[in-house]
Amino acid sequence: MQMVLFMFIAVLLMSSNCWAVDFEAYQNLSPEMYDCIEGKLGSKMLGQLEAGIVPTDKAKWIKADKVFARCMYKVGQGIPSGVAYYDGPFFDAMSQIDETVDMGAAITLVREAKTDKLALFARSRKRLGQNEKAVLKLAKKNPDLIVLGSPKFFRHKRDLSDAYNDATIEGIDAHDYKFVGEILYTHGDKSSGKSYTSGERYTDPSLQGTKTLLKRLSETKTPLMTHFEVYAPERDFPRFHKLYADWPEQIFIIPHMAFGSVEQVTDFLKRHPNVYMTISKKTILMDDFQDPDKIDKIGSSMLEGLKLKPKWRDFLIKFQDQLLVATDAHMKKLWREYLVMVFLQRVVLGQLPRDVAEKIAYKNAERVYGVQLK
Predict the structure, then answer these.
(1) I want to staple 326 with a disulfide (CB 3.0 to 4.6 A). Which of 75, 128, 161, 280 is the partner?
(2) CA-CA distances (angstroms) from residue 12 to 78, 85, 233?
(3) pLDDT of 183-222, one tens digit each?
């Protein structure tokens, strides 16, 4: 029964546009699960679910699913028998946070997930340095856990500004940031985010601002996160290939594998040994783009249910030295699902040879960030 229940939750969480009803899950609750769910949903809604009454509001049903998943972890039912699972050290190589998130609660979830290190940077949505002090304070309270990166700035125009470059380098010098938080070079509009007339945020990696930043980073050897997405390959691929080739001593990190296909990400990693990729958001299909054409142009997810697809397994083994686990928790709703995101990545790692899993889980991040697990 435990396996059935978790599969029910995992399938729902891996498809944001799919919701279903499995009343059996609510009719066979352990006392611990019952108390946990009742405490979060209330006795009225739980009673309706037990009786097989479908919520008329889709958002309420999705909330119920997520509460169910969180309660499974809380009461110790998060690892179903028969599911391959990596239980070793875990270095979350990318996460971000801002004032909309309860930072203390987020860190509690990180520790509950048994994450050993958390690479974290502030989200500065309105102005340079926004939330930086709060994240520095959070890191000071959690020195055993948090590995700091420089803040991510949302208001780049077509190029990086001198003010941003100065603030980034000054932050590295003052706070010993271990990496530069992601620069949104390309970011297609998502259903859960802002909309732009162009359908995207875009900063050109070939312009002078990026060159200036990289020249200054060459003195500190600080890794740089370059966020792009594969929906415009004719425009973007030549520019990023040139960027990575022109700076062979600079370490670059591509979040979420740019949502690429096996063939696309293979080409990038094969051509550029100085490039690393996080596997964040690849356990699910990224179907949140506002433009359906963009969805059609991105690569597949790694998992089919909870099973690692063979072509992705081969890829992970082949490029085991250039890959990093990461959640990219950032918005409030994603931080709430931190346990599930870590679980799914541990499921991926559990289907790899142990030595490969350990590299992707923490050893590569130790090398990239220059931070050892204690």
Answers:
(1) 280
(2) 15, 19, 31
(3) 999 987 777 778 888 888 899 999 999 999 999 999 999 9
